[in-house]
Specification:
The complex is a heterodimer of chains A (310) and B (507).
Chain A lengths: L1 H16 L11 H34 L14 E6 L8 H9 L20 E3 L15 E3 L8 H5 L5 E3 L5 E3 L9 H5 L6 E2 L26 E2 L5 H14 L5 H4 L4 H5 L5 E5 L6 H6 L4 E2 L11 E4 L5 H4 L2
Chain B lengths: L2 H6 L8 H27 L18 H26 L8 H22 L3 H11 L6 H32 L6 H8 L6 H34 L12 H27 L8 H30 L4 H12 L3 H24 L4 H28 L15 H24 L12 H4 L7 H26 L14 H21 L9
Helix pairs in contact in B: 2-14, 3-4, 3-8, 3-9, 3-13, 4-6, 4-14, 5-17, 6-7, 6-8, 6-17, 8-9, 8-17, 9-10, 9-13, 10-12, 10-13, 11-12, 12-13, 16-17
The chains are: A alpha+beta (310), B mainly alpha (507).
The complex binds iron/sulfur cluster (2 copies).
The site of one iron/sulfur cluster has 13 residues of chain A, from helix 5.
């Protein structure tokens, strides 16, 4: 038995301490640290047991319970698009594509109708469809309706109003039934008919802050939620409220617009630029009569009766 | 052995060349459907003709059309058997099982269409039972139709078939255990027959409102979408109920006529039965035509511009041909049936033609409801487009239908399609009271109440009244449990029938 014990001691010495023994067989400091480390490593799980058993509750308590209500004063993120300023350059569309990792549409008849635009320029002069008395192009993001029909119809709750009041899309949950596409009066929802595609060169420019969407789910404009979250986190760290100047050009489309036609902000704050602009006599909302309470307001001088409603 | 038995029984399990050829043919078509489904899973819905609304496409296409069509024809099954039970319509009794089988199979295959339609079928398989929300009209499609309606018809088919199963088990047939399980100890005593009469009466009563609700939820999928001109209409729900009746009764006429010829049932399925169904069908068709005219008038007379536009394009645009085919089929079917009724001269051939015409109309009309509102009906001036199904969609639909027919033929070969025993029951005999049993009552009421309780709790849990409605169910898998609750509730009928009589004193 004792022979066996000696064997083991020898083995351990060889493995752990061979270089850690000084020539006369004394432990070096390094060897001592190693042994202490080993002991601690073995003991650690036992020492942590109470933590594991009781600490859980504490962690759970800390986790914010999601009630569907936003923390603190509710922001109402909204957007104002000044059609009189818009030059129709399409910068917003390009910026949105780059920011939100929107797949590139491929050529060919097969792919016709599979394109995805979270932001699109609508041409009201088309001779088809309902008329809209507006001379220029109309930039069209998701209207982020306050009473969104798309949310109502989703069978699995894959689209919902999040803490910031934004109509969010949970890609992982979406089953791709496309009911929300039917419900949206503005047709602002897009389905991934094919596997999302980027040419090789584009792949280096994927924005890490925005998740990629698989084939078979619906997606739409999120008011650049990742940027709002960023601003919110910084504000929380600094313990300061979010300032209006910080967010006026927050979404990618607003940021790049050379004509500064797009303004973003909190509609609940009467002092914000977006609130003031939305009170303008030039202001109107698309398909106001649908009753979805869109949070995107348009400004134009040329508003006839038609464009206010149908 | 009675005449009917000698006609039906020898044909069971007898797979002659014709039958084998027929079944192989439909199985092949089904395999084609499977192949198309796999292609679709590999390349995504890109291989279908559907595209994004607003880019000129239609986001729903023939899958939804046929989902609704298949659910619609199941109507006939339930309604016919319910009417037979409620009003003791002897003349239709030989059709009862055909109708019930039609209901079960068409509901089964309607779910295939949904799976072909969704972008991520496997996710749907998990997330619908886990998260389905009553706020969405799809909840009704998923729970009421795929769940309640299906189970109710299946239990109906099972209970009504017990006597025949018991008879088959006593005969020299293969797979006797199958008949024995089906029969569940049925002996044919007067008490058992009385119980069956009672349960089928109450189930018929319970099923009729369920049926109206289920078909209405299908109508709601379209009728409550304010953002889709042409869909948004109060008439949508009743229209769906009536159209379901039209197509279902039409299909039942076709099946009855085919089987009458094939199995030589000229004596059992009398002309009177076709007369009855024909009359039912023309009333339903007339109602539907009435709805349709009202709908079209409303969309032309001072309605919002876009509604008129969609209606105009439906009538005279690229889908005009389909629209007018629908209208003329409906009118022709109505004419054929009504003239037969007016002159009281019935021909099975003409009635079958009418049944065929209304089914064509039912499919086309659903297409006309669903597609033009998407490709022409955007409220903003988006480019307009055109939708036509690709070979993948058509193959999947054909495969689905073929699978349904395959199952039907298979059933014909293993079970008597015409009730053998039930027909002999006289009304006087039915009313003979069975021995009362405390135990049975206890079993029945506890199962029934448990079912109802589960339904209520899980419905409230998934609906989340009082909280934000988009939150997840309080109890996980509430929607699935809701279906289980519905199943248990209907299963209580079976408990009532099957539990043997045990008196309180015996316990
Ligand atoms: S615009 Fe459409 S997608 Fe956006 S919130 Fe409103 S209904 Fe939903
Ligand atoms: S496509 Fe996705 S987000 Fe839209 S309704 Fe269906 S599951 Fe919900």
């Amino acid at each position: 038995m004792s022979k066996f014990k000696n064997q083991i001691i020898l083995l351990v010495r060889q493995w752990f301490l061979s270089e850690d023994l000084s020539l006369d067989g004394q432990l070096t400091r390094r060897g001592l640290v190693k042994i202490l480390g080993l002991i601690f490593f073995l003991l650690a799980p036992i020492l942590m047991l109470p933590k594991i058993a009781f600490g859980r509750k504490k962690i759970k308590k800390k986790k914010k319970k999601f009630t569907g209500e936003p923390p603190g004063p509710t922001p109402k993120w909204g957007m104002v698009i000044d059609l009189d300023k818009c030059t129709g350059c399409g910068g917003c569309v390009a910026a949105c594509m780059a920011e939100n990792n929107i797949p590139i549409s491929r050529d060919g008849e097969l792919y016709f109708g599979t394109q995805i635009y979270w932001m699109e320029l609508l041409d009201p002069q088309q001779k088809v469809g309902p008329e809209l008395k507006q001379a220029g192009l109309i930039p069209l993001p998701c209207m982020q309706c306050e009473d969104p029909p798309c949310v109502k119809v989703c069978p699995v709750g894959a689209t919902m109003i999040d803490e910031e009041g934004i109509v969010a899309q949970i890609y992982d949950r979406c089953i791709g039934c496309r009911f929300c596409m039917q419900a949206c009066p503005y047709s602002r929802r897009y389905f991934n008919w094919a596997e999302p595609y980027w040419p090789e060169t584009y792949k280096n420019y994927i924005n890490p802050n925005v998740s990629l969407r698989p084939r078979g789910v619906v997606e739409k404009c999120s008011f650049c939620f990742q940027r709002i979250r960023n601003v919110r986190e910084i504000a929380e760290l600094l313990n300061q409220p979010i300032k209006d100047e910080q967010v006026q050009r927050l979404p990618a489309c607003a940021e790049v617009c050379p004509a500064r036609a797009i303004t973003f902000g909190d509609l609940n704050n009467p002092e914000s630029l977006v609130s003031k602009l939305s009170q303008s006599p030039r202001a109107f909302q698309l398909l106001h009569a649908e009753g979805t309470k869109p949070k995107v307001t348009y400004l134009t001088k040329t508003t006839g009766g038609l464009s206010r409603n149908e | 052995m009675s005449d009917l038995k000698s006609k039906i029984l020898p044909k069971l399990w007898r797979f002659d060349l014709k039958t084998i050829f027929l079944m192989a043919f439909f199985l092949l078509l089904f395999l084609l459907g499977i192949f198309a489904f796999l292609v679709e899973q590999k390349y995504g819905l890109l291989v279908t003709g559907m595209r994004t609304i607003g880019l000129g496409g239609s986001a729903w296409g023939v899958y939804i059309v046929f989902d609704i069509y298949f659910v619609g024809i199941s109507f006939a099954g339930i309604v016919t058997s319910a009417l037979i039970r409620l009003f003791n319509l002897k003349i239709l009794k030989p059709l009862a099982r055909m109708a019930e089988l039609l209901a079960v199979i068409s509901l089964l295959i309607s779910t295939f269409c949904i799976f072909a339609d969704v972008g991520r079928p496997l996710h749907a398989l998990v997330y619908l039972p886990l998260f389905a929300r009553p706020m969405s009209p799809f909840f009704g499609d998923f729970t009421l139709i795929a769940g309640a309606y299906f189970f109710a018809s299946a239990i109906y088919l099972w209970l009504a078939g017990r006597s025949d199963a018991a008879y088959c088990a006593s005969q020299n047939l293969p797979f006797r255990w199958f008949y024995k399980i089906w029969a569940c100890g049925y002996k044919g005593t007067a008490a058992e027959q009385t119980r069956h009469y009672k349960t089928s009466f109450w189930m018929a009563l319970a099923i009729l409102p369920l049926l109206v609700t289920a078909h209405s939820t299908l109508g709601f999928i379209f009728g409550i979408q304010g953002g889709r001109p042409g869909w948004f209409s109060d008439l949508q729900a009743p229209e769906f109920v009536v159209m379901a009746g039209v197509s279902g009764v039409g299909m039942l006429i076709i099946i009855a006529a085919i089987l009458r010829k094939w199995l030589g049932l000229e004596e059992e399925i009398k002309l009177e039965a076709f007369k009855w169904l024909g009359n039912f069908l023309w009333v339903l068709t007339a109602t539907y035509i009435y709805f349709m005219i009202i709908d079209d008038l409303t969309s032309f007379y001072a309605s919002p511009k876009i509604d008129t536009l969609v209606a105009l394009r439906t009538l005279f645009g690229p889908y005009g041909g389909l629209y007018w085919t629908t209208v003329s089929s409906l009118f022709a079917a109505f004419g054929i049936l009504f003239l037969q009724f007016a002159f009281n001269k019935w021909s099975i051939g003409l009635t079958v033609i009418a049944g065929f015409l209304v089914n064509v109309a039912a499919i086309l009309k659903r297409f006309i409801i669903i597609v033009p509102s998407q490709v022409f009906g955007t409220l903003l001036p988006y480019p307009q487009g055109f939708y036509k199904p690709t070979w993948v969609e058509i193959s999947i639909i054909i495969g689905t239908g073929a699978f349904g027919i395959f199952l039907y033929v298979l059933f014909l070969k293993i079970f008597p399609i015409v009730p053998l025993e039930e027909i002999t029951i006289e009304k006087e005999k039915i009313l003979e009271p069975g021995p009362r049993s405390f135990f049975r009552k206890l079993a029945f009421s506890s199962v029934f109440l448990t079912g109802i309780l589960i339904c209520v709790i899980t419905f409230l849990s998934s609906a989340r009244f009082g909280t934000k409605p988009y939150l997840d169910p309080i109890i996980p898998f509430s929607p699935l449990l809701f279906i289980v609750g519905i199943f248990i509730t209907f299963f209580s009928a079976a408990v009532y029938e099957i539990v043997p009589s045990v008196k309180k004193s015996d316990l």
